[in-house]
Design brief:
Blueprint (H helix, E strand, L loop, with lengths): L19 E7 L3 E6 L2 H13 L1 H10 L2 H5 L3 E7 L2 E6 L2 E3 L3 H11 L11 E7 L2 E9 L11 E9 L5 H4 L2 H15 L4 E7 L5 H5 L3 E6 L19 E7 L26
Parallel strand pairs: 8-9
Antiparallel strand pairs: 1-2, 3-4, 5-6, 6-7, 7-8, 9-11, 10-11
């Protein structure tokens, strides 16, 4: 089906002037469009499934990007329902808000007690996840200009299509930010029963398999997830004059939605 032009066309199904309009977008992703007849509505839905590029261009032509103020990545099929998938954006987030997000959504771990820096990733108006970067937990890495991604948490209560590539984007951002601040290396750990696809896609290298053990040291720690074997991943950088500051790299100037985590 061709993209509707500005001039009125005659509907091939009902013979009336063709009507195809974006009626409503709710929750930033689900949408409804109006047509002159049911047959045209069904044809448009079939074309959405057959030609995703056409679907994206149609939604742009109908004004979806203007309404939401974001760039459309694709029109995704989420279990038989078409949703608007926007290009994810990484934005600042306060430490307290990141902690509350991890408390609510992380499957295995509690939030860290402190951080060096962190960020959030949004898909349109939906907060997808956060990354929290701090000092390494293992004492062997302390004082060696090394940082660790202590938590990376992505929501599982949103459509999987919206989460696509979000983990890799956050891992990539954390590495670039560590390099900008003058650190020599950044590490992270994934559970041995995870494939590490997102870390590898962000350019991190696998270093070692670490046996699960208690994290108790000079203070008691929560050990719900401690006995699982882990894989250690890293990114190393050419040494530069150390900044080690809390000043982030230049980020886009955006008006951030109000974050309420309840």
């Amino acid at each position: 089906m061709p993209i509707p032009e500005d001039r009125p066309l005659t509907c091939l199904f009902c013979g009336a002037p063709e009507k195809l309009e974006l009626f409503e977008i709710w929750s930033g992703h689900e949408f409804m469009f109006e047509t002159c007849c049911l047959d045209l509505h069904e044809q448009v839905a079939a074309d959405f499934a057959e030609d995703p590029a056409w679907a994206r261009e149609l939604m742009r032509r109908l004004g979806a990007e203007t309404i939401i103020g974001e760039q459309l990545r694709r029109v995704a099929d989420a279990d038989g329902v078409f949703i608007l998938d926007w290009h994810p954006r990484i934005r600042p987030i306060a430490f307290g808000a990141a902690r509350r997000f991890v408390e609510r959504h992380h499957e295995h771990c509690a939030p860290p007690a402190a951080w060096r820096f962190g960020a959030a990733i949004w898909n349109g108006r939906t907060l997808l996840g956060v990354v929290m970067v701090g000092n390494p937990v293992a004492r062997a890495y302390n004082g060696r200009s090394v940082l660790e991604v202590n938590r990376l948490c992505i929501r599982r209560d949103v459509a999987s299509a919206l989460r696509w590539n979000a983990c890799s984007m956050l891992y990539g951002w954390a590495a670039r930010e560590a390099q900008h601040r003058g650190f020599a290396k950044i590490i992270t750990y994934t559970r041995a029963d995870e494939d590490g696809t997102s870390v590898r896609a962000a350019g991190w290298e696998h270093e070692a398999r670490v046996r699960g053990r208690s994290w108790h040291g000079t203070r008691l720690r929560r050990n719900d997830n401690a006995w699982i074997d882990r894989d250690r991943w890293s990114r190393s950088f050419a040494r530069k004059p150390a900044l080690h500051s809390d000043t982030p790299a230049q980020t886009e100037a955006v008006a951030l939605p109000t974050l309420t985590l309840g």
